[in-house]
Amino acid sequence: MLNGEKMLFSGMQATGRLTIGNYLGALKNWVTLSDEYTCLFCVVDEHSITVRQDPATLRQRARKLLTLYIAAGLDPEKNIIYYQSHVPAHAELAWILNCFTYIGELSRMTQFKDKSAKHEDNINAGLFTYPVLMASDILLYQTDVVPVGHDQLQHLELTRDIAIRFNNIYGEVFTVPEAYIGKVGARIQSLQDPAKKMSKSDENENASIYLDDDRDTIIRKFKRAITDNEACVRFSDEQPAIKNLISIYSAVTGKSPADVEREFEGKGYGEFKLAVGESVADLLAPIQKRQAELLADKDYVDGIIKNNADHASYLAMKTLRKVQKKLGFPERPR
Ligand code: TYM
Fold first, then answer.
1. C-alpha span between 293 and 291 (Å, rounded)
2. Which of 50, 127, 297, 328 has its CA 20 to 30 Å from the CA of residue 3?
3. Would residue 197 show up in a list of annotated catalytic residues for this protein?
4. Which of 47, 224, 226, 31 is closest to 129 using CA atoms?
């Protein structure tokens, strides 16, 4: 039923409204790679509570995210699409791996530093150990490859370090995973400040294209996107705003940045920005339509959730039992 022999794991948080950065940096690559691997795509709802969430909203967003995975082209018959909170082994392994992770390592995580600056009134222990839960997600499934955007690389490095440390003590327990970063789209920046990552939590609505934005909104936001002052469409670090728009257009259309430069040679920023906006709107329209259909089909989606959680639990328990045995936890009498 599942695809390749090698394992792929990735996940997204069900917090905030997802952006085109989430799609181009991660989800799009998941779809491309899914034919080659046995894949688990997780809605990481346990990660979300490091920041306070409204329960009803979290539940609704988690379901929207799960249906988005399918709407974007991941076949739930061939890929294991599930909620993290349905598989208790994630949290159990996280406890164990906490005992193999150093405070110094966690203190260096840039995401922790950023988030604690943003949520000064709630710098909880979960925010600090968040990367250990992420390592558990990955290591539970003997994952070979983890497709993510650039901002998750540091967490991936830590995951590898934890796996190697554990293996050095107990033998080859975990597969040491590799990150997969797409050639274009791994680092989509804000449309209003190319020095900043496009993010779900940006206060400026015009900075991000949300996956549920309608066509007019998408085109309007691209029209308002800031540009540089060289008045030519060139993929260069000297023109970070235009470079970002070219990256988006390249990732959406599959054209190389050099092809995009040729296509818009001698043309103005206005024409270019309209083309980018239209390409993104065309890309998102069928995904939004399919997602709405799935959200309306409760029984179908509930069936997927149940079957896939069982499948993920089965795989996760194999690794967890092995780890527990290595550590010396008593075996359960049968
Ligand atoms: P999250 O939910 O913030 O983002 C999900 C994925 O989207 C990518 N991404 C971007 N890529 C390019 N440009 C952007 N502007 C952009 N913004 C987000 C992220 O790199 C990510 O791949 N900790 C993770 C979720 C997670 C996870 C895991 C991922 C939990 N466990 C195990 C992989 C494997 C996170 O917060 O991603």
1. 5
2. 297
3. yes
4. 47
